[in-house]
């Protein structure tokens, strides 16, 4: 994929940045954008995803998933509305597959799907003075709603992320090329791993191509992030997702884990006493001697402690998540 960032990031950016004290800009070249334009776009997505697009129609930015018939997540996304147009932000390595999947059903609706990844750049903004920084950079002010979209101009859109104060700015590629030299001069720039580490601390899992069709939405804790609606009506996989919620209990779910070592999380499972009890969704290095991981792990194993990365590998600690999970829905 030809990202707008390709020619602008010739050297590695800092991967260890503390944005609790000062805000930073974070280029996000690993994310892409699918746009849906037309009067049926919201209605179409209402029947294809776990998200309640009646809320998106009100101007809210919400996460969600597109599932298989077995109720497993094929694609995760963040939906950003703008009138009859909806942008789905998702991993760049999932864009083409998601387009092909949605395109099979879109022929029956008045909506036009497009891979907009080459024309829209995604820029993360994080830190305590995010709103002031956006104003100073003439990108606009953020909304007080933790999940509201701010249509500021034809050249950019701004979405507040979750409740931790981070934002994603959607910039036109031409505007990015014009503004990037000034942006680099005015504020600190951090590498993309800083964003993924913040997602892990927030307990917000992104499904990349390598973890497609492995986990159900509830196993990724999507039900507590407004990424799953149980009263929106039918969508692909809805029967399985609803049955698990109303009649079953989760045997495994998303946990935040930490290794006190610099390790590569990808390609390893989560083990307890030599037996695999979980799979990694995403990982990021926080410091030279710390790796943060989001993994779907059996609840009984997570409670027992003694988890390792791989069989007999690096010990893992279970870390707290910033939201409450309904204990009665777990085994």
Report on the architecture of this protein.
With 331 residues, the chain is of the alpha+beta class. It folds into two domains: 24-202, 2-Layer Sandwich (Gyrase A, domain 2); 251-319, Elongation Factor Tu (Ef-tu), domain 3 (Beta Barrel), CATH 2.40.30.110. The protein contains eight helices and 18 strands. The strands form three sheets. Strands 17-16-13-14-15-12-18 form a seven-stranded antiparallel sheet. Strands 8-9-10-7-1-11 form a six-stranded mixed sheet, sandwiched between helices. The longest helix has 14 residues, at 173-186.
How would you summarize this macromolecular structure in one to three sentences?
The chain has two domains: about 25-200, Probable tRNA modification gtpase trme, domain 1 (Gyrase A, domain 2, 2-Layer Sandwich); about 250-320, Beta Barrel (Elongation Factor Tu (Ef-tu), domain 3), CATH 2.40.30.110. It is about 20% helix and about 30% strand.
